[in-house]
Write a structure and sequence with these properties.
single chain, alpha/beta, TIM Barrel, Elongation Factor Tu (Ef-tu), domain 3, 3 domains, eight-stranded parallel barrel, 11 helices, 24 strands
Length: about 425
C-alpha cells in the first residue's frame, strides 16, 4: 500500500473551509486579513481565524496559515504579533517566504513548523538543505520544476515537499511578477495582484496612434500572457510515487463549486490509488467533473519538461458540459425535503446534479420549490432560502448544480496514456 499523501485545499473564508472539510481535504491553507498573497480573498479576522482553526481541528483537518508577504520595515512588530497569535490559536504551520519573517518566527514561535512559500523560489536540493538548517520543515516547490527535479529534492533535500497539482498558473517566475505593480500600483508580492496577465492586449504601431491591432485572437479577445490552468489528475501514480508529501490545489479566491469539485475528485483519485495501486485507473467521471468547472484549458505545467504545456492559451476552451451552481444544501428537512441556500435562479422541473461527499454525483429533478412562507413557487431567486422536494435526501454542504451547455470533449493531458495502462 502506498503511503498516504496529504491533500491540501484552499480556504478563503468560512464557507470554503467547510467545503474543503466536507469533500475530504486533509489540510487547508488560509490567512488573516494581512500578510498573505491573497488580500482580495475574504480571509479571516482574528476571532474568525480562531474559530476556523478550531472547526478544522474538530474534523481532524490541519491548518496552515499564510504569512508569505514580502514585508517592509514598518510591519515588523505587527508581523511578530500576528505570528504569536497563530501560535496561540494552534495553527499547525505557518507559510513564510521572507527570510526576515522566518527569523521572527524562529524567535517568537520556535515550536511551530514553518512551510516555505513557493515565492521563495527553491529550485534545488542544496537550497532545500539550507532552509532545513534554518528551521524550515516543508518546502512548497516552485511550479517551474520538473517531476524528476522534485524527486531529487525529496531524496536529497531532507524536508517535506509540497507541490501544486491543480489551478491557475502564473505567467511569471514563481509568481514574482511586476506587471501589477507597474500597471496598477498594486504589488503582487504583497498580496494585491490585479492579474493583468489575464487582460486583453493589442499592439499599437508608433505612426498609427489609436489603431489597436490584436496579436493572437479568438472570439473572446487576445491573451498574450494567459497561461493554461494546471491539472494533474491524470498523473496521480507518478505524483504519489515521487515522494511528494502534499498535493496542493490552488484557489483561495475561487468559488465553492470549483473547490468542492476539485477537492472531491482528487480525494477520490488518491484514495483509489492508495487502496489498490495495481488496478488503479483514471475515471472518465473525474475528467468530466474537472472539465465542467471554469478553466482556461488544462496542462501539466512544467512537470514533464514539455514546452507545449506552458505555451500561452489562445484557443477556446472546450468542455464536456458546464455545471452552474444552483445552491448549497443547508439541512435535510425530512419527507424528501431539502433546505437549500440558492445561488443561481432555479426552476421547478430543473434537472440537477448533486455533488455529495462520497460516491458519484447524483442526477435528480427539482420536483417542487417551497418558499419561507410555505408557499409553492415556480422558481427561486439567488440569495433566497427555500425548501426543495427532490427524489433523494442530501446532506449539509452538498452542492446542487444545473447541467448546461453541452460541448465537444477535450481530453486532459495524459488521460489517454493513463486509460491505456495495462492491468
Amino acid at each position: 500500500m502506498s503511503n498516504k499523501v496529504e491533500l491540501l485545499a484552499p480556504a478563503g473564508n468560512f464557507e470554503k473551509l467547510e467545503m474543503a472539510i466536507h469533500y475530504g481535504a486533509d489540510a487547508v491553507y488560509l490567512a488573516g486579513k494581512k500578510f498573505s498573497l491573497r488580500n482580495f480573498s475574504d480571509n479571516f479576522e482574528p476571532d474568525q481565524l480562531r474559530q476556523a482553526i478550531d472547526l478544522a481541528h474538530r474534523a481532524e483537518v490541519k491548518v496552515y496559515a499564510a504569512c508569505n508577504t514580502y514585508s517592509r520595515n514598518d510591519e515588523q512588530i505587527a508581523i511578530a504579533d500576528y505570528l504569536r497569535m497563530l501560535s496561540e490559536f494552534k495553527a499547525d504551520a505557518v507559510i513564510i517566504a521572507d527570510p526576515g519573517v522566518l527569523r521572527l518566527a524562529r524567535k517568537h514561535i520556535p515550536h511551530m513548523p514553518v512551510h516555505l512559500s513557493t515565492q521563495a523560489n527553491t529550485t534545488n536540493y542544496n537550497s532545500a538543505l539550507f532552509w532545513k538548517e534554518v528551521g524550515v520543515k516543508r518546502i512548497i516547490a516552485t511550479r517551474e520544476l520538473t517531476l524528476n527535479e522534485i524527486k531529487e529534492m525529496v531524496n536529497l533535500g531532507g524536508v517535506q515537499i509540497e507541490s501544486f497539482v491543480h489551478g491557475a498558473m502564473c505567467i511569471s517566475y514563481s509568481g514574482r511578477c511586476l506587471l501589477s505593480s507597474f500597471l496598477t500600483s498594486r504589488d503582487s508580492n504583497r498580496g494585491s495582484c490585479t492579474h493583468p496577465c489575464r487582460w486583453k492586449y493589442a499592439v499599437v504601431e508608433e505612426s498609427r496612434p489609436g489603431k489597436y491591432m490584436p496579436i493572437a485572437e479568438d472570439e473572446r479577445g487576445s491573451y498574450i500572457f494567459n497561461s493554461k490552468d494546471l491539472c494533474m489528475i491524470a498523473h496521480i501514480p507518478e505524483l504519489v510515487e515521487s515522494g511528494i508529501h502534499s498535493l496542493k490545489i490552488e484557489g483561495r479566491m475561487k468559488g465553492i463549486n470549483y473547490l468542492a469539485t476539485t477537492v472531491k475528485v482528487y480525494r477520490q483519485a488518491l484514495d483509489a490509488y492508495r487502496a489498490n495501486p495495481e488496478s488503479y485507473r483514471l475515471k472518465d467521471e473525474w475528467v468530466q467533473q474537472l472539465e465542467s468547472i471554469n478553466h482556461r484549458g488544462y496542462c501539466t505545467g512544467f512537470y514533464f519538461d514539455d514546452p507545449q504545456q506552458i505555451a500561452a492559451n489562445h484557443s477556446k476552451v472546450k468542455k464536456h458540459f458546464r455545471l452552474c451552481i444552483v445552491g448549497k444544501v443547508l439541512e435535510a428537512a425530512g419527507n424528501g425535503r431539502t433546505v437549500v441556500e440558492v445561488r443561481n435562479k432555479v426552476f421547478e422541473g430543473d434537472v440537477v446534479q448533486v455533488l455529495r461527499r462520497s460516491g458519484s454525483p447524483v442526477r435528480d429533478t427539482v420536483l417542487r420549490i417551497i418558499d419561507p412562507n410555505k408557499q409553492a413557487v415556480s422558481f427561486a431567486q439567488p440569495g433566497s432560502r427555500v425548501t426543495m422536494l427532490m427524489n433523494r435526501l442530501y446532506a449539509p454542504n452538498d452542492i446542487i448544480r444545473r447541467i448546461e451547455e453541452p460541448a465537444d470533449e477535450e481530453i486532459l493531458p495524459g488521460a489517454d496514456k493513463m486509460k491505456n495502462q495495462k492491468n
